[in-house]
Structures are given as C-alpha cells and as structure tokens.
Amino acid sequence: MVTKPPVEIIDLAERQRKKIQRTEIEAVDHPSGISVKIPEGFEVRDGRLYIIVSEGKGENKITFPVHLIRTFPIITRSLTNIERSEYYYELCWQNEGRLYKEIVPALTISTAVELKKISNMSLAVNDNNAKNLISFFDKFLLLNNVPSTEMVERLGHIDNSFVHPLQTDGLEVLPGDVGEKQIFEAFQSLGSSAGWIENVLKLIEPHPKALLMLVSSFTSVILKDLKLGPFIIDLSGPTSKGKTTVLKAAASVWGTEHLVSEWNGTAVSFERKSAFLNSFPMILDDSMKADERQLQRFIYNFSGGRSKGRGSVSGSQKEFSWNNLMLSTGETSLLDYAERAGGAAARVLPIKGLPFKDSDHTFFSELYKGIENNHGTVGLEFLEHWNQNKKELLPLYYEHNAMFQKKSNGNEVVSRIARHYSAIYFTAGLLMKFFDAPLDLGWLEILFDEIMEENKSIDKPMQMLEALLTDLDASRECISGKYESKMEMKAIYKDGTLFLLPAYLKEFLGVETNAIRSEWLRRGITLSADRDGKKTDTRQLKHLRKKYRPVAFNPEIIEKMGFDFEEED
Q: What's the total number of domains in the chain?
C-alpha cells in the first residue's frame, strides 16, 4: 500500500510549481536584445522597473505595482579578475533611447552606498530605491543564467597569458580610469610590418641614438622572459631637436602617438600608468615638466617595479607592479636630478646629444608620414614570432650579455646597465631575424662604449672621487701638508699620498659613504691596510705630532685624474 504525502506537502509543492510557471511566463525582452526572467515581486512596464507591494490582510489584501526606477537595469554577465580573484558584474540599461553598459565590482550591487555611486552614469539610483534594487539584482542572479568570463585590469604578462589590447587571449580588459582607457585605445594597428620597416626603421637606422630608443620599445615586452627587471632609457639634449619624434617612432611599434605621455603627472599617476602598461614601454616626454623633488624617488620606485605601500582608512591599499622599460626625454639627464644617487645611476641608461644629426625637414616629414601610415602591426607580429621561437633564441641573449659584461671592467653599476643593454642589442638581432631588418649591430656596440665614456655618473664611485678632489683643489687651505691647515682640516698630504679624514668623507658622501668607500677599496682606488686580519681602508698616521686614522688614496689614480696636491717650497 502506497502512503500518500500529507496535504501540507502537496499544497507546498503546488504553490512552488505555480511560482515556477509564473516565473517562466514573466520572461521579458530587454532593450539590449536578450530575454530575461523577472524575479517574483517585481514587474516591468513600458521599459521601467516596478516593485509589487501589498496592503491589508486576508480577504482585504491587495497587491499593486509601485514605480521603482525609470529604467530597466539587468545584469548581462559576470567577470572574474584572474590576478586577484575579484568578482565584477556588467550592468545594462537604456535611458532616453541610449543603451548603457557598465562593469562594476560585485560590492556595488551589494551595498546601498556603493550602488548610489553609479547614479552619475544615468542609472537613477537614490536613497529611496537603492535597497530594493539590491534585492532585485540578488534575485535576478538566482533566476537567470548570467554568462561569465575572465578579465584583467592591465596589459602584458598576466599569469600564463600575454594581453595585448588587440589580442586579449580570451580575456576582457577593464581599464581602471579614463587615463588608462585612453592608453588602451591608443593601441591600434594600421599598415604592415614591411611598411613600418621601410618607412620608419630604415629612416632611423643611420642614427644610433634614435635607433636604440626605437629598438628598446620592442625589448620592453620580453624583459620578463629574459629575467630582467624594469629599467629607464633616458635621451637628453637641446630642445626642438627631434627627441619627441623619437618617442613617437617608439610608440609606433605598438600604436598611435597617444601612447606618448608628458612628465607633468604625479608619482601616483605614473605608478598607475606603469602598472597598466605592465610589460609595454612607458613613454614619457620632457622631464623639465616633472616635479624635480619627485624625480629621484620615482626613478627608484619605477626600477623597483612596485608602487610605494600606502595606507587608508580601510587598511593597506592595493600595490601596483610592473616589469617594463621607460623611454624618457628631456633637456637635462634624469641622473642630473639625482646627482648623488648612486643607485639611480644603475637604473638609468643616459643617452646624451642629438638623436638625429644633419637631418632636414624633408627627413622628418617622411618619418612622420611613415609613422602615421604604419603603426601597431609590427609589434603584434614581433610578439607572434617571439612566442614561437623564444626557447631556441634565449641562449643568444646570454652570449651578448657576456660580451658587454667584459666591457664593464668590474664596475658594478656598468655591469647592471650592461644586462639591459645586452637585451636591446639582442632585440635588434631579433628584428633582423624576424623581419630581415637592415641593421648594423656594430653601431650599437660602439654606442655602448661612447655612452660609458660620456656619462661619468654611471661610474658613481669615480664620479664622487672627482667631485671630492675638485672640492679639495678649490680649498687647499683645508689640506695639511708641511704645515698645519689654516682652516678646518679635510685632508693630509704626506710623502706623495693624499689622506682624507673620515669625517670629511661622511659629510660629503652622506648616506652613500659606506657603499662608495667599499667600492673604492675593492677597486684599489684607496689603499688597503690590515686590521685584526681584516682589510680596511683606514690606517694609523702620525702627522705634525698628532695621530690620525685617515683613508689613503692610490697616488697613481690621483695623478691619472689630473690632480696634484704637492706643495711648492
């Protein structure tokens, strides 16, 4: 004998069935072209959303629709940020004949405070309807199968994918603000790689300094594969001599000239832009427009690849990261703004002088025409070739690096720069292989030697030594030789050797005192002495009946630098 279920369960099942039937009946067409189901308790009339309310009880209970919002908003899809597992929704509505779509964090449709923030996007959310709209969205998601997709907030290397605005690898790119959206839209493709080689690269090839900047634009996207961090290429020289043109040519590798920004932003805006570009080059024009006080700090922050940690009322803010090259121009070298920042010298490759020598207006007209008609395509094809061949090509980079490391002669700063210069040199070879580009790599080797010779700031220990000796040469009364110093003593000259007092060194070198003295000792610039079995740069010295413990400098190096502190009789 089969036992029948209780009447209460039958009634409950019947009511549930009727609810399901009603839900299926209440499917309506949205202005976006999709059909959606309207949750119980809500109704759509004439493109507006209503909420069903009831009054009275029992037989006197009546229900009727009350206007909730003058539009009909729905959720068209969900998105997951693959970097941080954050959830987003795309809202869609029509207002005054125009269809709006806006991607918002999940928090936005969960709290009234956040939901009201999108009222300035033409969605009429206010204090009166926010709570009921949150309820509508929650029930809407239960009732409708909303498609889902993965998204990112920036470009370049993301996990195991590489995101280019024109080839997103199936990912949705969501720029965080208007500035990032402008950058995103500047990635465009026009013309052909062959056209770019013929009308841009060939024109620039005879000009090594401009060519270095151009090739660096490609190098930026392979830094991660080469296991290199962020770096800065800085071109400085007289105004109106082609520096901005070089940047526009470098931007043409990936898109339009709108990829070039100016140095007139804040440190935070530069960090956000660096993070959004991520692997693509950060291109900044005219460092004279920058806040000089922020330049040194930003050089350090950029080359560190991570934004400065900042707090907020709700806790630590999100930190930004990046791994790209910065291409910068200005009338003055970035290193001049950070003259005593030894660490900064290893983070910047300074190129000084005119990028285009003996070039007339015809040359520039042809170059700009080439850029206008051919941009973006060559970058896309470069990425395609690189991804297909990088495993077999990577060993070549290490061969090039070994060659430039020999040129560094043990200079730690130059050695660090050489690693990135090797990457640029390697990239030039890739262009020759991928596109049969007409390049002479010998010019890039010669340019490296010229840059090292021109920029003493690259060799920070020698730069600071020259500054010290120049200061002493201008104030010889502070040097004690055959007679007592007439002023506050900075140094002692005895038996053909110059001894500097530690107090003077500390005052002059500041926070970098220990680092520079260690490098001097390692390279034999200062003379070593043994103290308790350890090598040190100070020694006991008795001079004019007094005892000192100064730092002795190698007389051969002092003479080679052109200084002579011998006293005349």
A: 3
What percentage of the chain exceeds 90 in pLDDT?
61
Which stretch of 11-20, 99-108, 487-496 has the lowest confidence by average pLDDT?
Answer: 11-20
> What's the CA gap between 113 and 105, in Å, rounded?
13
Residues in the chain: 569
Is pLDDT at 361 greater than 80 in this prediction?
Answer: yes
CB 155 within 8 A of CB 276: yes
Q: What is the pLDDT of residue 98?
A: 92
- DSSP classification of residue 201: I
Q: Is the dihedral of CA 518, 523, 527, 530 positive or negative?
A: positive
* pLDDT tens digits, 382-405: 999 999 999 999 999 999 999 999
Residue that is last in its domain, among 429, 458, 487: 458
List the domain range (segments joined by +) for residue 241: 182-307+319-354+365-458
DSSP structure class, residue 547:
E
Helix (H) or strand (E) holding 78: strand 74-81
The terminus-to-terminus CA distance of the chain in angstroms comes to 132
Statement to judge: residues 466 and 516 lie in one domain: yes
CA distance 431 to 439: 8
Please report whether residue 546 resides in a domain.
yes
Burial 536-556 (b: 16+ CB within 10 A, else e): ebbbeeebeeeebebbbbbee
3-state helix, strand, coil in the chain (%, to 5): 45, 20, 30
φ/ψ (deg, to 5) at 66: -125, 135
The Cα–Cα gap between 353 and 543 comes to: 48
Q: Which of 48-52, 87-91, 298-302, 565-569 has the lowest mean pLDDT?
A: 565-569
Query: What distance in Å separates the CA atoms of residue 281 and residue 421, rounded to the nearest whole number?
Result: 15
Q: How far is CA 541 from CA 315, 357, 476, 546, 547, in A?
A: 56, 55, 20, 8, 6
Helix, strand, or coil here: 507? helix
C-beta of residue 78 within 8 angstroms of C-beta of residue 86? no
Residue 327 lies in a domain: yes
Closest CA to 235 of 304, 305, 283, 197: 283
CB-based contact 287:332 (threshold 8 Å):
yes
21 vs 69: CA distance, rounded Å: 26
φ/ψ of 491, rounded to 5, equals -155, 165
Indicate whether 218 pLDDT > 90: yes
For 466-484, the pLDDT digits (tens) are 999 999 999 888 999 877 7
Distance between CA atoms of residues 447 and 453, nearest Å: 10
Sequence-distant (≥ 6) Cβ neighbours of residue 23 within 8 angstroms = 37, 38, 39, 40, 143
18 pLDDT tier (thresholds 50, 70, 90): low
Burial status of residue 524 (CB atoms within 10 A of its CB: 0-12, 13-18, 19 or more): exposed
Parallel/antiparallel/unpaired status of strands 172-173 and 148-152:
parallel
DSSP β-ladder status, 491-494 and 497-500: antiparallel
Strands 282-285 and 260-262: parallel
pLDDT of residue 344: 66
pLDDT at 332: 87
| Domain annotation covers residue 86 | yes
Global confidence as pTM: 0.78
